[in-house]
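ok trying this again, last paste got cut off
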Amino acid sequence: MDPATYLAHLCRDFGAFEACLAGDLSAPIEHCGGWRLYDLADHLGQGNMWAAVAVTEKRGDYQAPPAPHDGAALTRWFRDTCGVLLAALDSDPAASAWTIAPPPTVGFWQRRRCLETLIHRWDAEHALGMPGRLDPALAADGIAEVVDTMAPRQVRLGRASAPRHAIRLREGETGSSWTLGPGEPVATIGGTAANLLLLLWGRLSADGPSITWDGDRRFAQATLSGALVP
């Protein structure tokens, strides 16, 4: 996906997330522990500033101040963090940056922040009872990111054990597929790109009717149950 497309998606999802801040800031975020909508906004806004500094100053030790609790002030603060990040990312994707995984480029953050915001926009809308659509092409890229970046990083940081069995993730409409784990896949898990992405991020149950299975489900479930993402 090209940089302009990432930034366009990011800008749209920032706007959709900001719209959620007019709702109940105490709404629980189902898949983020004990977080409320306020905490999710704080997390996403602070992450915006952290990633912007990673690009502009090439360091990963920045700590942003916490978000304000007042609703109007929170919205302004969040909007400002989005502007800072978008300005930082509107540059050559091949330019160097500090990153959490290879490649150490601005392009890494264009992709990562776009996909992070996609998931958390869904979280915010889900918390308010109105989960929005996930763009199929972007969701497919999100699946690839879990496979090529997020899951390996979790293993590298000691947050998860390396998977013992491979699974194939197959998107039903296009037939695109990704393999997670070593060797020949023991099972194939099917669904739309959006549902497969939500499954990998722990937002959707593997037992749901929107997910199909073929193969050894027991071994595949062991791979899925690992901490694939932060």
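PB: full thing came through this time. The first strand starts at residue 166 and ends at 171.
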